[in-house]
Amino acid sequence: MANTGLGTALRHWRDRVAPQAVGLPAGGRRRAAGLRREELAQLAGISADYVIRLEQGRATSPSAQVVEALARALRLTQDERAHLFRLAGLAPPGPGTVPRHITPGVHRMLDRLAGTPVAVFDAAWNQLLANPLYTALMGEWRGNDLNGVWRNFLSPNNRVRDTPESRKALQSALVADLRRTAGTYPGDRDLRALIADLRRHSTGFAALWESGAVGQHEAGRKTIDHPQAGTLTLDCDVLSVAGSDLRIMVYTAQPGTEDADRLALLGVLGTQSLGVEEAPRPG
């Protein structure tokens, strides 16, 4: 049966989002002031064909991950996000799950940091959103690599230059973070699955988990080897959003330095965007 309610809601919310508000150019002739289907697909990380099928009611069972991505791309409020889940035939995430909603206020704050590499992670270190400059700096991740814990234990796709000491400290802090998150959100099935997968696939993670490793993230300087811009040494700060357990990671360069020049170059180089219909669950 065609899910026309879902399609109608998506079209309505898409029409009210100005492309300038999400960092897209407004050029060219438009039938409406809002997002094109292709632009919504780009922002949500799904294919344009899938957006069309959702709006036409021919795709009737989107996953929770796709619904969450659409809610973020459309900048829905908490109530609108819950309504979108129900329209998709899914229960809205409950209070026992890791918060993944990015409020319109946080979106507006990120809009004002367009010239700064910024990414938003949830309490399980799943990347929820990254601006183009962050993606240009760190690379475009997908699948399991969208989870920062998975990536630091199991993936070679990392441009940050580590020493054995800094890597050990980071991994201990990540495991301690995940342990605290598991205690705070015991009902989150995705989180439990992530921890089980990490313990099964990474002996290093399993050892730290069993040992009760402790640690905390601290502001610091990171050296990043970029394939086009060269080596950049930047300040990395992780900010917390009160009441949501979201983490905002920000990279900045000291003004007037070669690092600042290379970061500006990255803004010119940009990054390619991908369209994936159903990305695997991070972790």
TrEMBL record:
SMART domains noted in UniProt: HTH_XRE
InterPro entries: Cro/C1-type_HTH (IPR001387), Lambda_DNA-bd_dom_sf (IPR010982), MLTR_LBD (IPR041413)
Gene Ontology MF: a single term: DNA binding
Domain HTH cro/C1-type: 30-81
Designated name of the protein: Transcriptional regulator
Species name: Amycolatopsis vastitatis
